[in-house]
Design brief:
- It is built from two helices and three strands.
- The chain is an alpha+beta fold and 81 residues long.
- Strands 1-2-3 form a three-stranded antiparallel sheet.
- The protein is globular and about 35 Å long.
- The model has no long low-confidence stretch (mean pLDDT 82).
Length: 81
Amino acid sequence: MCPVCNGLHRIENLCSNCQRLLDDVGKIESFYDPYSPYRQWDELKTTNGFPDLANHQCMHVLVCPDCGLEQVVAIKETELL
């Protein structure tokens, strides 16, 4: 389970260009094609180019609202209790 996707944690990274707080625009898999949000996440993780499936990570895209810098960050997934 991703703590960011489930509202338990917020990403507060700063832009390396202008030091503005980056906006989390969602999981990287959501941007692949119009149907990607409806596909199984683990299936998408096998083709996204990141070792996120093996490392139990959720890849999020961050964008600076001022300069447009894009950054992908790995969020450690946790087990449901």
